[in-house]
Design brief:
Number of helices: 5
Strand order of the largest sheet: 1-2-3-4
Helix content: under 10%
Strand content: 25-35%
Number of strands: 33
Distance between the termini: 37 Å
Amino acid sequence: ERWRYDPNVDGAFPRRGCCGVSSRGVQVWKGKVYLATLDGYLVALDAGTGRELWRVDTFIDRSRDYTITGAPHLAGDKIVVGNSGADFGVRGYVSAYDLETGAFAWRFFTVPGDPAKPFEHPELEAASRTWDPKSAWEAGLGGTVWGMMAYDADLDLLYVGTGNSSPYPIWFRSPSGGDNLYLASVVAIKASTGRMAWYYQTVPGEIWDYTVSSNLVLAELDVRGTRRKVLMTAPKNGFYYVLDRATGAFLSAEKYVRVNWASHVDSATGRPVITPDGWYEKEPKLVFPSSYGGHNWMPMSFSPKAGLAFIPTIERGMVYQTDPSFSFKNHHIYQGVVLAVDPAITNRLTKGDPSLLETKEFLKAWDPVTQRERWRVPLVGQFNGGVLSTAGDLVIQGQSDGHLVIRRAADGTVLRDIDIGTGIMAAPMSYAIDGEQYIAVLAGFGGALAPFYPPGSAPYRYQNYGRLLAFKLGGGATPLPSPVTGGGGPGAAYEPPPIGATGGGGAAGAGAPPPMDAPHILHTASCSRSIHPQLGQGLI
């Protein structure tokens, strides 16, 4: 270890977050490391020493539950950062700062603000016409940018994916309807000026938590006989999109998982054709995909050589039901839907088939030109990791059970399976030193499933702490973490621990995985209360 940096985040701050304490990476450029802290600061460090060079506060309102869980992104001479918090009723935006000095450059809001005040930039005036004048402005309305961005230096365009609505039901936030721009959209912003070049909205009037927080892939494809510079994304809503990245023109979209909220995306308009099957205003509906999405934040990968995208997909339905007792309360989950649906309703909608609500995950190879699946392989557990594809025709993915799996790109055949003993959510990376190739992975299991590790995940067998592992041909044996003491092994029966449990005390059930201590549970209580009855209905 050369150095370490502690941003000194207040230990109580994680209570403001939805789904655990997360940091999805840093940016490294010309001797500096750029990172964003959970409590809203953008920091530049000296890459050689770890010395803090500058720090800026990116939050516009510290009375609201903003957090940052995504990585900052380089865009020309700017470093850009978004934020999280739409489930708590905040207003989304991205902010740009000078790479060298940290001086503020510009800010782009993804949804309009209080109509009694001037618009912060021209794009918001047009967006405001897609909202009810009596919208729930006090609730922020969402649209946070917490996923991965992309930048095209030739076009000087920064691409950001915007988040879910706040609250989910449009009949609460914008009663007369409307597209509610720029929710659930890809927005292209001129990095030098902060002005919007174009936008494409994936879900007009979004009501299902269908964020565009999955990674945005820039590539060149032959589209109907013409070579096009494209942007591709497989967001939570279940459609795989190909857009012209210079103009935002819609090129194609097809379902990559089971979808019933829309029948298809109209090729002439680029708009989804909404079905009654997903509209839950008057009665509960079983909707595909769930709010987990068909693909969440774990990065997919595109191989120009194979001509395939490799997507870690999730097949699962979810019952959506309007919450009749809904009202806005600051520092509380602000979704407007019932999180714990009556089992009788669920049984009726699933027709007694609980498998419709079970999570099934697959790694899928997708041809973005034909918009067809080439192959799929089933994955173990839930929230498996992001994907790396290489010029050597390899596809490498970490799994929640602690295995790093190397496959052949052409057909998904397993070439190597390495048990590292730690759940993997991030995508691996590849680099070379003196002509020798390495594969590295930052491992550690957490996120929305952190409070209660699912059966079969690596924390059932080994202690769950973050590790960086690097592999090469001819490398040594993989060191495993310390085993869990007193556990019953993968898949053993497990009951959630009481709130007062502390580390080392164990939990009910002979097969208990590592015990959750009280701070760990409290930090994720706001997102996890529906699966643990002791967490109740409010923020702890």
